[in-house]
Write a structure and sequence with these properties.
By secondary structure, the chain is mostly helical. It has a domain at 26-91. The protein has five helices and no strands. The mean pLDDT is 81.
Length: 102
């Protein structure tokens, strides 16, 4: 009786596992190249690089090109904000700086 019960439960488990197939998604072997090329296009050619990535009609390259473009825009905004903060915090002339240390 134990053998029949074990066999029946094993059969149920195997049939449940087999009735829900797992679909494997195969990635493109060139996906890393598309990501790198798109990122450099967006970073060095800016919006023109994004347009070139759209011409290749590859979603991965376009997404990476936008990331590269937005990286440059973010660095530019940080640079301008840093200059603004440093300029607004600095004294207006050298005389004010000398008076500050006296």
């Amino acid at each position: 009786m134990k053998i029949i019960l074990t066999f029946a439960s094993l059969l149920v488990v195997i049939s449940c596992y087999g009735s829900f197939p797992v679909l494997e998604v195969l990635q493109d072997p060139n996906e890393g190249i598309y990501k790198t090329a798109g990122y450099f296009l967006g970073m060095f050619l800016l919006i023109f690089g994004v347009i070139i990535a759209y011409a290749y009609n590859n979603k991965i390259m376009v997404k990476s090109a936008w990331k590269g473009f937005l990286t440059v825009v973010g660095i530019f905004i940080l640079f301008v904000a840093t200059l603004f903060i440093l300029y607004s915090a600095s004294p207006d002339s050298a005389e004010d700086l000398v008076d500050f240390f006296r």
